[in-house]
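WARN retry 2 of 3 for item q-0093 after timeout on previous attempt; input resubmitted unchanged.
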Amino acid sequence: DLYWLSGGWSSGRRRPLGAAEPGLALPEPSITRSFSSACSCEGRAWETNGWRGGSAAVGATCAVVAVHALTRNTGRGAPRRRSCRHAVAAAAAAVETEVAQLQHTLRAWLAEAKLHENLGADIKSRFGAVPQQSESVIAETIGRIELAAQECIAPSAWVQPFGSTVNGFSQMSSDLDVTVHIENEELFYYMSYLHWHAQDRRFTESRRRDSEGGFQSADRPKVQPKVEQVGARDAQASAVQQLASFLPEQGFRVVRSFPHARRPLITLQDRIGECTECDVTIGNRLPLFNSELLKSYSKVDDRLRPLVLLVKDWAKLRGVCGANEGNLSSYAWTIVTIYFAQLADGVPSLQALAKEKRSVVDNDYWGLEREFEASFLTAEDFLASEHAVRRESGLSLAELTYGFFRFFSREYRWGKEVASIRLPERWEADAWFRLCGKNHPEPGIHIEDPIEKRDLNIVLRRDRLAQLKVEFQRAISKLESGCSLDELLSGVGVRG
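OK item q-0093 returned
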């Protein structure tokens, strides 16, 4: 398995479910065991993320072994060539077979269930045409944040939205997420001056007090401070503190400010606009690509948006949504819903269909700068391609809803299976992937961030994991007993 040669992490390879743990000996490379390894033959999948045991040398070794697998020498030394296209086709057929099996199983579930006769119509009526926040409201709110950023951080600062308000899976009440863009050189320059100014003011004030009192303060610097460039984290922390001071002048109330968090953040309440709440970060580029990806998914299948909105509403009402409360985030719920639709009804993996390579350099969850693969096929390109085959026999919204709750309550392989819209193959979380998330004594849920490739369960507390399983069981029991949509969404779950 070439994956283990890369030091435990290759974005294009995972150990298949049920495979043995790796030993010290190098196992025989297998090219056709998964769609992702087949894609690696085409040169799309092999990359090494250095901090996790990978390195340039390891990446080179991995590439050499991959070539060896394709051109293995015969007894006379002549290479025995394998067909990459054949490997890709065989692996893709294996994935399609598993999806077909799940679809067949789902139809067997549906034959047993007694769904409410109006469930589908009620879902379509309630979630089929949910209005989103208008672009003008978003632009007006962003304009005020941008004005404050240009006044207190840097004149060239500009603001860009991301998250549910722009990815197609939002409602009018959804929070607004924005990031402030500033060139690093300019950010360091202005924040270094600001840092020096604060120290110099402290020095001057302390010297004034000393002269008035006739003694020297113990905490006063011995020499007058000089301008020195601050580091990236200090610069972002200073920028957040500046914004927190200036944003109230633009009609916002600062609810929370975390200048020294992993990703410095301000949570605002808009007092004069129509956006209820807004989260502001500095230089946060990765979520922009996630938002673009999810926006394309919202367009490739007109059933996805109402299904995602239903699941998110259910999760919020039942108290199992909200990272700040130790639950899965709204973003994670979007990922698992799309993942199920890929398995159950053939919604494509847009990243697997990418034609051109695109990457972004940003800090990962742990604050280390890395390059991330951000390629995917846009909805427009997909709908214009031969891949966009309309499924006349596709599942209805009621059937997808039942299937979603049935899958995660009884069929999902808790503690093993990774919900991945990048590689929807039901692959198993290996030891390295588990390092990126939260592990509990009980089998948990694993959800891959499609761009950053970390586990989105990292915020999930143990008690909330237990409640999550309870709520899945409650939902499927109600659906199988013929409950209506209102009954499914009724009541309030146990909250953390």
